[in-house]
Amino acid sequence: MGATLGAVSSKPRLGRPPASSSAETRGRIIDVARACFAELGYEATTNRTVASEAGITTGAIYHYFDSKLEIYQAVLDEVQRRVYQRFTAAERSADTFIGKIEAVLEAAHQLNREDPTLAQFLGASRIDSRRVADLSDHMQSTDPRRDGFFDNIVDVGVQTGEVAKSDRDAILSFIQAFTVGLTDGLSHDDTQHRQAIDGLKVALEGKINSP
């Protein structure tokens, strides 16, 4: 296991926590589970693994979650909430289509620098959802959050004249493709992630052939 996971496992394991530490413990379980799912995948991650890394007993996990699937759903919801909260604040800082996309790209890079497990979990979740039938519905249920977010940005581009109405759907697919690529292919390497974002900005601003 990586340094992130191994760092917690040497702590004494706790049983049922007092009420005052309940929210903190639940949050720690979610954080640890996110790193486990990102590194090991859904099938290889067990409640025992998560409990050990969180410094609690396996039995104590069931004070917070009924199953591994419920832990996974909590992690997915938390990741989506954090990502789109940051993305929404970023896109609202600009008025143009290109400005909004570039602001979101910068937010994605900053998030990845702060906590690479966010992107790594999302990348792993796309693979796991194709392998594990139980996860398919959970992944599909979050797609509208992503698609609706970028739908609105592309519509701004149509309104400002930056995106031709006839190109709307193609541009939306393009945005979805490069955001998935950044997440799944480059989140592990900060330098490449930065370079890819800079390259996308060049493309968005139409400067590829500029001297």
What does this structure look like?
This protein has 211 residues and is an all-alpha fold. The protein folds into two domains: 3-61, Arc Repressor Mutant, subunit A (Orthogonal Bundle); 75-204, Tetracycline Repressor, domain 2, CATH 1.10.357. It has ten helices and no strands. Helix 6 (97-114) packs across helix 7 (116-131) and helix 6 packs antiparallel against helix 10. The chain is elongated, with a radius of gyration of 19 Å. The model is unreliable at 6-17 (pLDDT under 50).
Short description:
The protein is mainly alpha-helical. It contains ten helices and no strands. The radius of gyration is 19 Å and the shape is elongated.
Topology record:
Blueprint: H1 3-6, H2 22-40, H3 47-54, H4 58-61, H5 68-91, H6 97-114, H7 116-131, H8 133-160, H9 168-186, H10 190-204
Helix pairs in contact: 2-3, 2-5, 2-7, 5-6, 5-8, 6-7, 6-8, 6-10, 7-8, 7-9, 8-9
